[in-house]
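=== Structure Prediction Worksheet ===
Name of assembly: unnamed complex
Input type: mixed (protein and possibly other molecules)
Chain count: ten
Listed entries:
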Amino acid sequence: MPKPQLLETFPNPYADRKYEIYMETNEFTSLCPLGGVETDAAELKLLEGGAPDFATIKITYTPAEKCLELKSLKLYFWSFRNDGIFYERAVNHIMDDLVAACQPHALTVVGDFNVRGGLKSIITASYTRD
Amino acid sequence: MPKPQLLETFPNPYADRKYEIYMETNEFTSLCPLGGVETDAAELKLLEGGAPDFATIKITYTPAEKCLELKSLKLYFWSFRNDGIFYERAVNHIMDDLVAACQPHALTVVGDFNVRGGLKSIITASYTRD
Amino acid sequence: MPKPQLLETFPNPYADRKYEIYMETNEFTSLCPLGGVETDAAELKLLEGGAPDFATIKITYTPAEKCLELKSLKLYFWSFRNDGIFYERAVNHIMDDLVAACQPHALTVVGDFNVRGGLKSIITASYTRD
Amino acid sequence: MPKPQLLETFPNPYADRKYEIYMETNEFTSLCPLGGVETDAAELKLLEGGAPDFATIKITYTPAEKCLELKSLKLYFWSFRNDGIFYERAVNHIMDDLVAACQPHALTVVGDFNVRGGLKSIITASYTRD
Amino acid sequence: MPKPQLLETFPNPYADRKYEIYMETNEFTSLCPLGGVETDAAELKLLEGGAPDFATIKITYTPAEKCLELKSLKLYFWSFRNDGIFYERAVNHIMDDLVAACQPHALTVVGDFNVRGGLKSIITASYTRD
Amino acid sequence: MPKPQLLETFPNPYADRKYEIYMETNEFTSLCPLGGVETDAAELKLLEGGAPDFATIKITYTPAEKCLELKSLKLYFWSFRNDGIFYERAVNHIMDDLVAACQPHALTVVGDFNVRGGLKSIITASYTRD
Amino acid sequence: MPKPQLLETFPNPYADRKYEIYMETNEFTSLCPLGGVETDAAELKLLEGGAPDFATIKITYTPAEKCLELKSLKLYFWSFRNDGIFYERAVNHIMDDLVAACQPHALTVVGDFNVRGGLKSIITASYTRD
Amino acid sequence: MPKPQLLETFPNPYADRKYEIYMETNEFTSLCPLGGVETDAAELKLLEGGAPDFATIKITYTPAEKCLELKSLKLYFWSFRNDGIFYERAVNHIMDDLVAACQPHALTVVGDFNVRGGLKSIITASYTRD
Amino acid sequence: MPKPQLLETFPNPYADRKYEIYMETNEFTSLCPLGGVETDAAELKLLEGGAPDFATIKITYTPAEKCLELKSLKLYFWSFRNDGIFYERAVNHIMDDLVAACQPHALTVVGDFNVRGGLKSIITASYTRD
Amino acid sequence: MPKPQLLETFPNPYADRKYEIYMETNEFTSLCPLGGVETDAAELKLLEGGAPDFATIKITYTPAEKCLELKSLKLYFWSFRNDGIFYERAVNHIMDDLVAACQPHALTVVGDFNVRGGLKSIITASYTRD
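=== Predicted Assembly ===
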């Protein structure tokens, strides 16, 4: 299961102004709970969790009091590696975890998933503090 | 004929918020009812439906209660393979079928068709729920 | 001379909604009345009309009752091949001819001409129905 | 079934010398006899022949007495559209048909197939006259 | 008809050594004698010579006593504009004309023609002095 | 010194409507009055005016009564070749000269200068008629 | 551990000639036994096998009697997902497994690994049958 | 430590109008105070300040009375080379130093840092004069 | 006139082995003695030497006892700025000057000249020590 | 000074065969002993060693008994950061150090240095064991 407890923050050194931080990794991988478009039941037993999914994850946020610590973010992404989760849920789940961790002014998560069945999928979820 | 009954949906896991889903395939093919810009009558008998058209189809939507299921979308696109349909009609037809299937907040379909007679064509149709 | 009478249309199958059609050709060629930046008088006699110009023409429009028929558009562009016309006039002329033929909600023509004298030229003209 | 009888040739206008002709289409599509990596049995009934495959086909040859006629080559490729054939067989089959039709000095066929199951495949077969 | 008499040369300033000259134009256009893959008979009357073809022509040669004069080469290419000629013939014809004009150690002509009927064609012809 | 007197215009053939003209050259060169980031005093004597600068100049304007003549624009740019002028001054100077010559509705000049001292510079100046 | 027993083959339909098959996946991932350049000991406990590595794997081979079945190749690559293996060993191991499975005339494996510590690594191993 | 005293300015030659200046360098390097995502304690002793960071820095500003002198900006960037500073602090620090030096109408600094731990980071800070 | 006396060298620090040095500049400009393809006589008076030519110059050499000093090479290229010279002569002239200056094992000069009259020219000359 | 003692190796796991390893970093930086093309004497005092140089270093080798350890290679490159060294010397020095450390069958080092004075430099040195 994704482990939001891995996420660490540090005090924003310029909390008195609004500025933007973008982070991107092309090394996100998880498993598809149903095996997805391209996998039959027999194959799923191999990995005991579903067929692998691969994505580039892009995060843009405006920090308030806290900034996301880069190394902890890497470990948080690792924690998706061996669990099954759908595209739509993964992207919204990441957004909720990051918002809870650093309580930013605003935050957007884009998940750009590899082609499956000839179809590419990109999911975008955004948060703005009221 | 395109088979909208192939389209399946699943409940949007985050129906309480607006977020965006983009899907794209470069494997869309149909037939041109008249043979189009590049085909004469004799050639049309070969395929009993018209000369082949090829396109990249791009879909962007904001789901409401339902999300489009990826595998069923693939099959729905397959159902255009052996029928004749004009560019303008194909794009608007896809838009209407997808809107009927998942009743989204908003949805856009772009059909980017291969060059014919030295001319490239891109058709864009959009829907917004009132 | 350009032959707008070559342009044909067909009834817009979805005239009840606004959607966008984009068409592009990189096979537009005409002649320059004065020979342009790169040609002297002796050379002009060769073609009895001026030095060749080459351009990519890009058309974007929102159809109303009529759509432009693709094959007739190809022939219309051919009719510029052996006549002399300036860049600015060509782009505006095409825009006027297309608007007259299909009476759209809106239409834009972009003429992206090859480098002459080390200078690239791009002309853009737009029409919106009142 | 592929129809080699569609292939036409014309006399090579420069048969006294060796020169090279390259032709390429990104509009090749056939069906996979087994449904391939990404398709289960239920889906195959939709098209009564297998899941669609898409490829770019590239042909390079040195003509001897005959050249391949371009329009007939287009129709020959169309004849693969509704039949099931494996990648390896398709590429070698095309090579044999083209060699039989024009009896060239040499000929190479490359089939560059779309990603399936996260895997891209490119098959290359070559012929040289003894 | 192509006019090789337009071709001019100047004495090679370094005729005592072998070096290479490459020239390329993306503004080559001619007419197809039969209308080619994409044109029916009615359309051909428009231009009284055939449907337009477009190509990039690439020339590589090792000059001997004479170099090809650039401006005259431009005019030579213009002389193809209003005559019908097949791809294979055009490329070999250009090669023969250039060899006759400058009698080089070696010369290659590549004609890279625009897509017709979904098919791209590239013709390559080479000459080496014995 | 730049020679605005070289600039010529012709009557805008469609002065009754607003449309846009873009022109670009990657062959702009001038000299740096101080030798700039990368040149010492001894080197400056070589050219008697400063170290060479190179830029791509991009002009976008909405013509009113007059259009800028392309060939005269080329010659105007040549007139910067042997004089020293700073980046900021060059771009604003060109803008003022072009506005004076053709009195447009609006005009923008972008000067995109080559890397000096590891730093790239792009200057943008705009004019809008009151 | 990598599972070569997952690899399946089918009889080469054109075993009487030599031709080439290329396959590529950008979805290869394994674990680094030591955590690699970028990971400390505490992080390794998270995945109980090492830090994740990502690579594009490219295979080129000339089949003899047997061809590698695409779907089984996909599953074979999945079997690296949760085990630790060094770059050099992974590429040579894959080469040995594929050669053992299909006994080809020749086979090359390229592993193009993601940047670690600012360094990109590409390993290439080749086999030729004696 | 960064040395803002290195920054020099010159009088804006067109201070009566608003125009934009963009400058970019891909040669920015500093040290990470903690060694960052990819470095352990032993390695840090090598450079006595932390592991190296690399970034492209992009500056856009609207000058008021003063312009930033290019050569002094180069030297100012050099002064970060041997000191430890976090991404977020570096970008905001640069912005504050440049604003103090030239008091512009507006100024934006973007720091696009190299991949660390599979993650790319881009920080953007903006200033607008009240 | 080009000034080969500007070229300086320094002793090759590894003269006991053969290795390769490549240098490239996209800031070469000279004048065309005849005004070239695109310029008439009146225009030539402006620059008193001919129309400007622009090229990228690429040098590859294997040093023997001496290496070409980078700064002096820059100044040597500047010395072409205000003199008229043909493409073929310029490239061979540069080759001869560089060979004379550093007496290398081998040296190649490529001059890649900007488009003139729709034609691009690339000249390549090579030297090998006997 | 570069510290070859930082280089570590591990036993080649497949020492019985020849295969190739490629490694590349775009984070190499050193100082120029003389300040190089773009720096005057006053600037050099800032860094007490010379103006910064930046390069991409590319290594290709065929390991014999030992492989280069990736992490130690990273630290070895760091050791060039604060010392002055010329391009030609740096590339040959790296080659000698790597050959001494791992005694490979063959090894090539390419140093691709950033533009200085409008000139790009690429140095290539190769070693083959007798």
